[in-house]
Amino acid sequence: xxxxxxxxxxxxxxxxxxxxxxxxxxxxxxxxxxxxxxxxxxxxxxxxxxxxxxxxxxxxxxxxxxxxxxxxxxxxxxxxxxxxxxxxxxxxxxxxxxxxxxxxxxxxxxxxxxxxxxxxxxxxxxxxxxxxxxxxxxxxxxxxxxxxxxxxxxxxxxxxxxxxxxxxxxxxxxxxxxxxxxxxxxxxxxxxxxxxxxxxxxxxxxxxxxxxxxxxxxxxxxxxxxxxxxxxxxxxxxxxxxxxxxxxxxxxxxxxxxxxxxxxxxxxxxxxxxxxxxxxxxxxxxxxxxxxxxxxxxxxxxxxxxxxxxxxxxxxxxxxxxxxxxxxxxxxxxxxxxxxxxxxxxxxxxxxxxxxxxxxxxxxxxxxxxxxxxxxxxxxxxxxxxxxxxxxxxxxxxxxxxxxxxxxxxxxxxxxxxxxxxxxxxxxxxxxxxxxxxxx
Length: 440
What we know:
- By secondary structure, the protein is an alpha/beta fold.
- The chain is built from 22 helices and eight strands.
- It has an eight-stranded mixed sheet, with helices on both faces.
- The C terminus is likely disordered.
């Protein structure tokens, strides 16, 4: 989602690196480039103005002007201030000392709020919690059915708020708490009413639910694709309901990123999670510093490592690292790696986590056809053991046989071999050998 912004900021950083020292003149030019980049990304203009003022104040300090590499120091200032705009440091989800914790999710219709309830339940289950899903929408019966369906598909319990129960919300909450305590449910993840726009009726209902629930966290769920509309809505919810956290959905889309870069400053509330896809596992903890690094093209290796740790077999990973160092990497190993990477998510997203320098430059912009993974796996499965170990054996007749066996055209076999050989050459480069060497 930040590709356009990253590209423009990269030009600004390149301009600074070409300067011997930071002066009023070249800093003004760099800040102009940055200002235009942010405004085109739909960042709130007040946030841009304040951000620019802080950069200028710190960048023209004596410490920077007297530094050996002033451009690098300015880049660090930009990174730190960008991380500050995004929230500074990760803010973990708060749990009550007296279970059950209650997480009340609020937001407009279409923001992905009900789906996010299911994703959040899956995330808390992953850290050893036992969630219970509840819909406290007092006007829309269909909301109950939607969350009930999501709960069933994920295997989580759902507590149905019937019409009789909703007639006396306070008594309903009392029953709900007794039900959850007796069965060891914690937290309660509560979906609430939404509208297509902010109105007094919605806010009155949400205030009533908030006062009844006394939630541990009131979480605004905003659609990042709507840009400044999501920011304005969040501000209204904060002023009229009171928020403690934000979850931004659809950060895997084509929006310009203005919501993510504005919402913390405007509401004063941290982004705690981001939705990066429609599947239940596509909810990620938000790390402001890591996101700032990605926006500036510095990569996010820590998040990539965490993804790998969740999916990878440690012994197999160590063996693969050994083969890479010894240059014993075969097509069979190649197949295992691309299948493993597919488990970790979209390849385009994974490439975006890498620093955009050296052999990895422009990888984040690469157009990856995810279907190729399935096709390549089928091609490798149609090879003999000897062919997988030594692709130089693949003459014309062998390739024709593999094409018949895999159901793929010969030119795709040629593409696979070419990409594999390119990967082997890349692995021989000193920079990549050093990176792989660190896996010992």
